[in-house]
Write a structure and sequence with these properties.
The structure is a homodimer. By secondary structure, chain A is an alpha/beta fold. Chain A is built from eight helices and 15 strands. The interface between A and B is medium-sized, with 32 and 32 residues.
């Protein structure tokens, strides 16, 4: 990996799936920390589906990436210079808005110190970070599953989906999921302990496939995907069902969203769809961290990563993440973990 | 009005809007009350939009009407014979499942006695009955509006819609609505005190019309209509918006429901759509009756009825109700109120 200060710049709003032309590798300017700032050498970055939503030029719940400016997202680094109280060179830090560059300088309040090396550093942007908190809050607080209820999760082999399914099992639910390949289907059933799982690419009729893996109907649906799968699920929700709307990854690359026809089911079934954004739920982090570290220690949660190497890999990693091209949390590593 | 025992029978599942061929007037059989039963002479019936849902042959949240059997719904009558404790001839009663026939016999537990003549009898199937409770629970419990918030209601001149708008005003909200004629628009603004109202039939673009009458966005949407209006509203909901899904009257006569494209707004806005069915909320009736009678006495709620006369009027009344052909609660009167 290069020692030079590099960065990945967002080039322009893509149509459909972002390709290599959406990103540019270029030298990064260097700046010294001002009072209250720290300089951080990047170690690894997380790629997450919500980042596609920042490439539309429209303000949603996060500001759009600006063309010509570096990508930014969840990342981990090491402090190399500090003019901020409480931060010293050598500290390991995580940020929700780390610029995709070799080193960057910014206000210390944008960073949190990583207190423990008990787990791999990368876990702090994955199972112990935003995706973990998303699964925990979305399932338990928004979905509110009770023991014995039927939980269905889309993108079940994704970072969030895999955690949702496993937490639901720990809470005594029957769990089924939807994925896009036979390998992922087996991963969910054989490795993660799902009761059943469908491969939507192999399904002749999506609604029948949902009915088949959820024979008792659906009490809680954790939605990552949107589109026709949501429409199929609506046909099989039970009375009082809760749909936790976490994402609609199938829709992010479309010019026009796909239609939904079966919303009237919400009426007959007194059901709800509740959208949520994880940054609204920061107060749940302590409970989440206590539970999740305990589950990890006890071997009750399985967790995989797919590591891409170097800034050069960002376009490929991004495409692979959005298209479901690999198993495991998408990590771009630009430096080795320090000792 | 005829003295003979007549009834209105549901003929068969209509395609689209139910026409005269969907109903048949015929002589009704007579039966004497058994132990625990009462015989009730019908005075008036309520026609409500949910009844269309019972004409599809599919079980939804109420059993479908059976071809060849009488229609049934909310109705008011007078006891003429009783073999049930607590009921005497002359008692005025209301039932959620009164057969559309001149007189009928059934278990007393299907009836509630009307304790007060302070208000017109018909109010007990309207502003003080199911539609009133629906507006009250749907707005206050499901929608949860706070003073100063923006409330939007579809079918705003309907029985439920008009009450939703007025209750929201009493709670300090800014209220706008959607209706299907200029006369209804004026009714909402001039008579019911809405802040603004759109006529969807006159709107060139529905989404622009919604934006115009809700300049500050929408915090609570009380949904009676479904279809393109819901899609338009989704574009203008505020962060944390609540959509109380009470009905989708625009969809009931369609072979296939209309598509919804903008559900992704629920995500960015952390909003929810919650379906509800009023029969789940019986425990709120005492609070509702206390508030609503106080509001009526104080002249704070305006309420209109459209009375159709005789069983012969049922097909016309039903069509007029479903198509928005008149202002006010739809009542079919088959006998005069007793003194």
């Amino acid at each position: 990996m290069s020692e030079a200060n590099q960065r990945i710049v967002f080039v322009d709003i893509p149509k459909g799936m972002p390709g290599p032309e959406s990103f540019r590798l270029e030298p990064a300017p260097r700046s010294e920390p001002a009072e209250g700032e720290i300089r951080v050498r990047a170690i690894l970055f997380s790629l997450d589906p919500y980042m596609r939503g920042r490439m539309t030029g429209r303000k949603t719940y996060v500001a759009p990436f600006e063309p010509g400016h570096p990508l930014a997202g969840y990342g981990i680094g090491q402090v190399v210079d500090s003019r901020a109280a409480g931060f010293s060179p050598g500290d390991l830090v995580v940020s929700p808005a780390l610029k995709f560059q070799s080193a960057s300088t910014g206000p210390a309040r944008g960073f949190a110190k990583i207190a423990t090396r008990e787990f791999p550093l990368s876990y702090h942007v994955g199972v112990l970070g935003m995706p973990g908190l998303t699964a925990y809050v979305g399932l338990l607080d928004i979905g509110g599953p009770k023991s014995g209820e039927s939980v269905f999760v889309s993108a079940a082999a994704s970072t969030v989906g895999a955690l949702v399914g496993q937490i639901a099992k720990l809470k005594g639910c029957r769990v089924a999921g939807s994925v896009g390949s036979e390998a992922k289907r087996r991963y969910c059933v054989d490795e993660l302990g799902f009761d059943d799982c469908l491969d939507y690419r192999a399904a002749e009729r999506l609604d029948q496939a949902v009915a088949q893996v959820c024979p008792g109907g659906i009490d809680v649906y954790f939605e990552n995907v949107g589109g026709p799968l949501l429409d199929a699920v609506l046909k099989y929700i039970n009375v009082g069902a809760r749909i936790a709307l976490c994402g609609m990854i199938s829709q992010y690359n479309l010019e026009r969203p796909e239609p939904i026809y079966n919303l009237i089911a919400l009426l007959a079934k007194r059901a709800c769809i509740q959208g949520f954004i994880i940054t609204d739920h920061e107060q749940r982090r302590p409970a989440f961290l206590a539970d999740m570290t305990a589950w990890l220690r006890a071997g009750k949660i399985r967790y995989r990563e797919k590591v891409f190497e170097g800034f050069e890999s960002v376009p490929e990693a991004f495409r692979s993440m959005l298209s479901g091209g690999h198993l495991g949390k998408t990590i771009v590593r630009v430096a080795a973990d320090p000792d």
